Amino acid sequence: MQLQTFPIIDALKGSIEKIWLYKSDGKITEDDLKMIVPNGRIKLIIPYNDVITRTGIFEIHSGGNKIFLIGITEVPRIVNDQKQNPSGTIGIELNPAQAYRFFPVRFSAIVNTILPLGAIMGTEASDLEQHLSLAASGAIKADLLQHFLLLHMAPEEDTVFRHCIERIETSKGQITMQELEKETGYTCRWLHMKFKERLGISPKNFAGIIRFYDIYKSLNTNPFRLFSEKEFYDTYHDQSHFIRDFKKFAGMPPARLTRAINDFGKTFFKT
Fold it and tell me: How many CB atoms lie within 10 A of CB 116?
């Protein structure tokens, strides 16, 4: 398994978090969870060949340079190449404060959902898929995708929404709604409405994902230090709260995850 990243063009820096190309020789051990957990990002993915993505909410069979928009997820996803053939997938992870500027879609309707880009962008998406199928390399595909996004990027930016996203991320999900109300001058109800419109989920749920993902990365990097020093007490009210949230986003308690093999999932935050 290899993960290669591509440079982001200047005009999209701050709007795109990461562009990656995942390659596999098809020989992922059967014991591997092949699990990707929520990380608070809306994504575009373009599989080269047949890949099945499952959660309890959706299942798709994808391939052939088809483009899919993944709404923000609150549940883990299992990814598997049923044929165990060499495969490749390009992914673009968008800044959650900016994703709404690219797609004419109601984001609350695509939470935990994978949607063919053609369903919302019609022939423009089909034309791009045709160009992608002819591109000779992952770098060329990444360049085509970025210029497509730049062409469809709305000029107006919601600076209040961006501020809230940034504060939630920099506080690792610890900032309260009361603090956001005070900083922005807008009510909790208004902020909730804005998040549902721009991202698809509430600020509280987004903060929960950011808080979880920070712990998840620490757990995979050094699980023994995390549990011996009980670092989660700085983030959660108590141990039961920590375990409950962890199971919600990872599908299993942290102790079980530390014993499991998930080299596939770890690949995506090593780069």
Answer: 16
